[in-house]
Each structure stands twice: as structure tokens, then as C-alpha cells.
Amino acid sequence: MISCKIKSTYSFFFFLLFFLFTAFSSFAQGEQASIAQDGLTAGTATGDDAVAAAGETLFKNNCSSCHAIGEKVVGPALRDVQKRHKLPWLISWIRNSSQMVQKGDKEAVALFNEYDKQQMPSFAFSDDQITSILKYIEKASAAPAALPADPATGGSGVAQGGTDGPGGGTAAAGAGAAGKYLDYVLIALIVVLIVMVITLLIIANILSGYLRGKKDLDGRDIELVDQRFDFSKVYKSRAVQVIVGLIFTVIVLDAAIEETYGVGIQQGYQPTQPIAFSHAQHAGQHEINCNYCHTSVYKSKNANIPSANICMNCHSQIKKESPEIQKIYRAIENNKPIEWVRVHNLPDLAYFNHSQHTQVGKIECQTCHGPIQTMNVVYQYSPLTMGWCINCHRETPLNTEGNKYYDNLVKLHDQANKGAAFTVSSNGGTECSKCHY
Ligand code: HEC
Ligand code: HEC
Ligand code: HEC
Ligand code: HEC
Ligand code: HEC
Ligand code: HEC
């Protein structure tokens, strides 16, 4: 029967649509997987990704103040470091490099001398933690240096250019690139679907027009040909209402969640300052210590912003004629403080103490504030979210050496958790009351 033919034309097109849809989505997934797998040698993509992600956090929290992947910072560029050294060597180097130098390991001594006898700190990491860092380095090494999606070189891009931009030194940038890619695939998919539907309607129209011209139709065929597409039936249909309602709710919820999580997160915030003061010039080029200006950062909760008098220690002599320096003079003459715009700002509900981290925890400023010594204009490098604080507390080994107070605690911890490091959180650093009163 002819109606059967029309029906089979419809089902053929639906089949084609379905086929294209599955083909496209598996294509998209395949591409994603191959992006994710870039630079990984063995194992499943998901397992390795998790390891490399853990390694990335460890690297950012402990190594990025001195190392980048693609360029020398304080220590050497770590691109392809596993091709330069064997794994056991790397593990013992990262755990205790000065011991290796003392023992006279040839590679270690050569490296130590090459870098002006600077000591790399020791890290009480487990083998797994070190391997995860190396996995991350390996993965980041494989990524092309120019790609902003590479979190490690993204940060150092700022250093190279000596420019001010928040150089994508965030993990979000990596996720963003993959997300954007997926968006393109989805848009293409939707366009294809629309084109297919239009073609389908045109064909159906032509076919029923043709049938209508014929005389020898039976009852069912006539009914089919005369059938009008009834929109009111569609939107009155319970199923359609439920589906549309669901989609709408999901979209609204998604937007709301994004909003609430985004509130207060100001990563990358870079206000213009009243005087063109450059950290790249002062802390970078002229190597003025951070605590020359931020005098309280090792002693108290807050790091102070220097008063104009500190600037005058030098600028009563240097660059007196510069219009920017004149602004400092004017502030002093008028007895008005310079109105620097605050960059970092935790909500009052959270307690953060600088000296606890810089003096006691021995964490470098750059671990939290990024490569300040390369910034012409300061920007907020870290997210400063609760998750960020807690992640670091989970992962950073507590420096317990030479402190009798910890001896018993560490012993108990080691009995209970074989091989796991004694971290800030092992000592209660993730208890709510430590950061919220
Ligand atoms: C305070 C600065 C500093 C920190 C933090 C630091 N390193 Fe280093 N690293 C150095 C220096 C300096 C060297 C060069 C050797 C030397 O002078 O001891 C070096 C050398 C290395 C090397 C040998 C590189 C080569 O090209 O042969 C590796 C690997 C390495 N570091 C890994 C790490 C890892 C992993 C971390 C984080 C867990 C880390 N470093 C943290 C300063 C640092
Ligand atoms: C010559 C004085 C001077 C030196 C040296 C200096 N700073 Fe600053 N710093 C300032 C001034 C002035 C501001 C306020 C203006 C601005 O944000 O650029 C500031 C702002 C900052 C801020 C942002 C504060 C906010 O508003 O949230 C951070 C973070 C910071 N400095 C870290 C550092 C670190 C880390 C170093 C060492 C690598 C350093 N500074 C060295 C003078 C200095
Ligand atoms: C320890 C010395 C020292 C201190 C303290 C210091 N500066 Fe400077 N500053 C310098 C030097 C050196 C230069 C570079 C001069 C040059 O390029 O010839 C400079 C350059 C500048 C310039 C660029 C001037 C121009 O037109 O090129 C500005 C603006 C500036 N400083 C602001 C400040 C402010 C604001 C403070 C206080 C928060 C400050 N400086 C504290 C040493 C200092
Ligand atoms: C463990 C992470 C961490 C380290 C390490 C760290 N800071 Fe901060 N810094 C922060 C946070 C978080 C804030 C925001 C504090 C707030 O808003 O109360 C901040 C704020 C600041 C400010 C703005 C003034 C203030 O206290 O709010 C300055 C200046 C500053 N830091 C300088 C430094 C310098 C210099 C060093 C190194 C000697 C350093 N920081 C080390 C996390 C850190
Ligand atoms: C880069 C890693 C790092 C980040 C990021 C960090 N911390 Fe810490 N924090 C430490 C270390 C290490 C210690 C332990 C210092 C010590 O006592 O040796 C510590 C200790 C503390 C303590 C004391 C805990 C105790 O057991 O007494 C508090 C409170 C704290 N941090 C709050 C914060 C807050 C709030 C933030 C986020 C705004 C933050 N920290 C971000 C590394 C970090
Ligand atoms: C290491 C420090 C730290 C610990 C431990 C910690 N918080 Fe927080 N918390 C923060 C910081 C910093 C903020 C503010 C940052 C932000 O708004 O994202 C915050 C924000 C919050 C907020 C407000 C969120 C908002 O959007 O305004 C709540 C609620 C909260 N914490 C509850 C808790 C509870 C419950 C615990 C214990 C399970 C806890 N926190 C443990 C550091 C901590």
C-alpha cells in the first residue's frame, strides 16, 4: 500500500536521524577522550586523569613557586624531566635532594652546582604522590607550550611576557577549552537536525501532494493524505507538557547553581590601582623582598599594604620627576593615604592567618598569590574558596620535624594509616571550627 510506503519513508528518516545523532555523539566523546588521553602512556583514561589531576594540585601547591613546565623559574623547567632522570632517582630527589647532594650522587651534584647551590626543599611525599606529580608533569609536557589550556604554562606565560593579564593559570581554563569544543559539536548537531527536519517536511509534502493527484487510493490512504498536522494536539499532550516542564526546570536549576557557586569567587580579579605601581619592577627586577613592604606578613594575621612613607625610603631620591611618583608626594603633602584598591577579600565568616602559613607552615607567597614578581598589576591568582583551602590542607604534609609536640600524634597516625602522609588535615586542619568561629 502507498501509505505503507510513506510510513516507511518516515521511519527511514527517523532511523537516519537517530544514526547521525549517535554517530555525532560518539564522535564527540571519542575526541574528548583523545584530548584527555594526550600525553598519557598507559592505563585507562579516567584513572590516569585522576592521578594527573591529583598531581597537578600537589604541583601547584608545592612546586609551582619554583618550577614551571616550559621555562626556568627558580629551579629548572620540568618539561620531559623523566627523559633526563630515572624514576627512582626522581623519587629520592624530590623527597630529599640535599641528602643526595651530600652523598655525592653525580647527577645531583651537577644540578646543584648548575643552580648556584640553591637547595630545593624536601617533601615528605609517598611514592604515589610523587608519581602523580610526575604524571602531571608528563601530561603537561606533552601539551603544546602555546596552548592556553595548559595550566602550567598558562601561568608562566605571564612570566614570559611580563604582562599583567591573569594568564589563564587556572585549571578552569583547561576545562573551558574542552567545554567550548563540545559546544561547537553540539551547535553543529543542532543545525544538522534542523536541516534534516526541514528536508523531511518538504519530502512529506511533495509525497502527499503527489498522492492527492492519484485516483486509485483506498480509504486509509485518503485519510493519511488528508491528515492535517494539529499543533494544539501537540501542546495539549500531557507527555509534551511534562517534558517541556522538565527541561525548563533543569535549565533554571543549572543557572541558579552556577550563580550561587560563582558568587564571591573573584579569581583573576585585577582592579586598576591609583598609582601605576609594578610588582614586576620592584619585587622582580629590583628583587626587593616582599616583607620589605608587607612588613607584617610573617608576624600577624594580615599582610599590611605599605604606607607612602615606605615608598619614600627610595623615591625621595629615585624618579622624583615621574608623574606617578608625584602622586606619592601629593598624598604625603595632603596627609591622605593612597587609596589602593583591595584585590583579595575573604568574607568575614572565614578566618585566615598569614603568619600561620608563611612563618609556621613555610609556604611561599607564590603558592597562593602566583607569580607576583612578574605582575605589573596584581591580580587574584587563586580562587580563595573553601574548597581551595581544604584541598591544600588535605594534601600538604605538616612540617613536624624537630617538634616534640607532634611525635606521638605522628606515631598514632602512621599506625592507623600506613604510608599516608601526616597532613594539615590529619592534625584537624579541615575541622569547621579552625576556620569558622
Ligand atoms: C624553593 C624552590 C623549589 C621548590 C619549592 C621545588 N623545587 Fe625542584 N628544584 C629547585 C632547584 C633550585 C632545582 C635545581 C637543583 C638545585 O639547585 O638543587 C630543582 C630541581 C628539581 C628537579 C630536577 C630537574 C632537572 O632538570 O634535572 C626536579 C625533578 C624537581 N626539582 C622537582 C620538584 C618538585 C616535584 C617539586 C614540588 C614537589 C619541587 N621541585 C619544588 C627548586 C625548588
Ligand atoms: C616596594 C613595595 C612592595 C614590594 C617589595 C612588594 N609589594 Fe606587594 N604590594 C605593594 C603595594 C603598594 C600594594 C598595593 C597595590 C597593588 O595592589 O598593586 C601591594 C599589593 C600586593 C598584593 C595584593 C593585596 C590585595 O589588595 O589583596 C599582594 C598579594 C602582594 N602585594 C604580594 C606581594 C608579594 C608576594 C611580594 C614579593 C614577591 C610583594 N607583594 C612585594 C607593595 C609591595
Ligand atoms: C627599595 C626601593 C624602593 C621602594 C621602597 C619603592 N620603590 Fe618604586 N621604584 C624603585 C626603583 C629602583 C624603580 C625603578 C626606577 C627606574 O626604572 O629608573 C622604581 C619605580 C617606581 C615607579 C615607576 C616610575 C616611572 O615612572 O617609571 C613607580 C610608580 C613606583 N616605583 C612606585 C612606588 C610606590 C608606590 C612605592 C611604595 C609602595 C615604591 N615605589 C617603593 C625603588 C623603590
Ligand atoms: C596559604 C595561602 C597564602 C600565602 C602562603 C600567602 N597569602 Fe597573602 N593572602 C592569602 C589570602 C587568603 C588573602 C586574603 C585574606 C583576607 O581577605 O582576609 C591574602 C591577602 C594578602 C594581602 C592583602 C592584605 C590582607 O592581609 O588581606 C597581601 C598584601 C598579601 N596577602 C601578601 C602576601 C605575602 C607578601 C605573602 C608571602 C610572604 C603571602 N601573602 C602569602 C593567602 C596567602
Ligand atoms: C598552599 C596550601 C594552603 C592553603 C591554600 C591554605 N592553607 Fe591553611 N594551612 C596550610 C598549612 C601547611 C598549615 C599548617 C601550618 C603549621 O601549623 O605548620 C595550615 C594551617 C591552617 C590553619 C591552622 C590549622 C590548625 O590545625 O591549627 C588554619 C585555620 C588555616 N590553615 C586556614 C586556612 C584558610 C582559611 C585557607 C583559605 C583561605 C587556607 N588555610 C589555605 C596550608 C594551606
Ligand atoms: C580551611 C578552612 C576552612 C574549613 C576547615 C572550613 N571552611 Fe567553610 N569556608 C572557608 C572559607 C575560606 C570560606 C569563604 C570562601 C567562599 O565563600 O567560598 C568558607 C565559607 C563557608 C560557608 C559559606 C558559604 C557561602 O557561600 O557563603 C559555609 C556555610 C561554610 N564555609 C561551612 C563550613 C563547614 C560546615 C565546615 C566544616 C565541615 C567548614 N566550612 C570548614 C574555609 C573553611
TrEMBL record:
<keyword id="KW-0479">Metal-binding</keyword>
<keyword id="KW-0249">Electron transport</keyword>
<dbReference type="GO" id="GO:0046872">
    <property type="term" value="F:metal ion binding"/>
</dbReference>
<keyword id="KW-0472">Membrane</keyword>
<dbReference type="InterPro" id="IPR009056">
    <property type="entry name" value="Cyt_c-like_dom"/>
</dbReference>
<feature type="domain" description="Cytochrome c">
    <location>
        <begin position="50"/>
        <end position="141"/>
    </location>
</feature>
<keyword id="KW-0349">Heme</keyword>
<keyword id="KW-0408">Iron</keyword>
<protein>
    <recommendedName>
        <fullName>Cytochrome c domain-containing protein</fullName>
    </recommendedName>
</protein>
<dbReference type="InterPro" id="IPR036909">
    <property type="entry name" value="Cyt_c-like_dom_sf"/>
</dbReference>
<dbReference type="InterPro" id="IPR020942">
    <property type="entry name" value="Cyt_c_III_dom"/>
</dbReference>
<keyword id="KW-0812">Transmembrane</keyword>
<keyword id="KW-0732">Signal</keyword>
<dbReference type="Pfam" id="PF00034">
    <property type="entry name" value="Cytochrom_C"/>
</dbReference>
<dbReference type="InterPro" id="IPR036280">
    <property type="entry name" value="Multihaem_cyt_sf"/>
</dbReference>
<feature type="transmembrane region" description="Helical">
    <location>
        <begin position="184"/>
        <end position="207"/>
    </location>
</feature>
<dbReference type="GO" id="GO:0020037">
    <property type="term" value="F:heme binding"/>
</dbReference>
<keyword id="KW-1133">Transmembrane helix</keyword>
<feature type="signal peptide">
    <location>
        <begin position="1"/>
        <end position="28"/>
    </location>
</feature>
<keyword id="KW-0813">Transport</keyword>
<dbReference type="Pfam" id="PF02085">
    <property type="entry name" value="Cytochrom_CIII"/>
</dbReference>
<dbReference type="GO" id="GO:0009055">
    <property type="term" value="F:electron transfer activity"/>
</dbReference>
